[in-house]
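Intended use. Records like the one below are meant for learning the mapping from a protein sequence to its folded structure. Do not use them to infer anything beyond what is encoded.
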Amino acid sequence: MPETIMTWQTLAPAISEIWLVAAICIILLVDAFAGQTRRGLTPTLTLVALAVGAALTVVYANVGQRTILFDGMYVADGLAYTLKLFGYLFVAFGLLYSRDYLEERGILRGEYFVLMLTALLGIFVLVSAGSMLTVYIGVELLALSVYAMAAFDRDSGVAAESAMKYFVLGAIGSGALLYGMSMIYGMTGTLSLEELAQKLQGEPNLGVTIGLVFIVVAVAFKLGAVPFHMWLPDVYQGAPTSVTLFIGTAPKIAYFALALRLLAHGLGGVVVEWSQMLGALAVLTLVVGNVVAIVQTNLKRMLAYSTISNVGFIVLGFTAGTPDGYTAALYYTLIYILVALGSFGVILIASRKGFEADHLDHYKGLYKRDPLLALVMMMLMFSTAGVPPFVGFWAKLRIFQALWETNHFWLVVISAAMSVVGAFYYLRVIKLMYFDAPPAVYPPPQHSTGVRAALGLNALAVLVLGVLPAPLLDLCSRLIH
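Structure written out for the chain above:
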């Protein structure tokens, strides 16, 4: 084979990953020498790094052209560029929401931001994966960073326990993924997802079917689908809320990309087999997530089961097994991340040192103490419940439409019924905020103007995208088709 000469022209499509690696090294060095004397320097540099990375991605993005690098291991296309820009945006908002929380608890340390950027690098690698090897590297880079973040508060035994559960169960998921991919490689002789799509056509043999089962299990583990959801509620409740916000938002982009690149693209020739498996998982996920969420008294744990139920809708998009279904899943993923970002942002702003504001009772009469915070939370809960004119309504409707067009009528009925069940516990939060008397003693929420402005913008986006859903819907359709 002729030797490939690497020039800036050939490496430019991978600018996001190149910049992140450089930024991680720079921030690590700056924090080592100046982090103790100027604690605010590292988070500020991290925000600058995210802004510069997004700008470089826009400048060097060639959205209309699909570029393949590193012998087919890396793919740069419109979908990859767009998801990376969303990744920068969501992580930046999460960092804004988390800064005061981390500082109050004495865990505003440089390692936190380095781990956050390393996890983002894992997301980017996974989004641009063109080979099963790249898929696995991206999954592990993201997973190992998030395990460390979950245990970041070393003084909290609960955080350490939840991180250990996350690590053990996550390792099982990674092992299942690796075993499944090794089976597929053994049957086909290729790691390239593009070649895999050409070789796997028609009825799969036993080896491919076994590999397929393990890969579906691994995707379900990473997403948090039932019955592989055991880690998710404990991690959401036990980890620091800033870490919970991160785990519940940006990595969902990566796991959507995992399902799309590996299942829809690489294993698209056996879509009938894996879509049937996902259909059963989606039903279990919707039922368990919504029913168990009703009995929760901890808001973070309730949002964990809400995440599980929302993962069920994302999986339903893949169950359709069509480009329209994948479009609906992408749209739902982005909308869910936007709403989850604001929901955990409200918890962070309402919290104080020694008071996590993570129980439902803490939100009684919130509108009397903080009208803006209550209004934002109400908008986010309405959107998650799928109430128009908020954007969550359109996200659910697109999933229903994709299922209806592929004759999955029974899934439409079940998912619609579970949406009604889910509306109960979302509306309960609104009822507590607006109709219950506030507790006698309650620490005042934070009044940081910048953070509140970001949170208000977050809630406004939920409303505007609901009133004008077409631009984002069209974008998702163009990226998939």
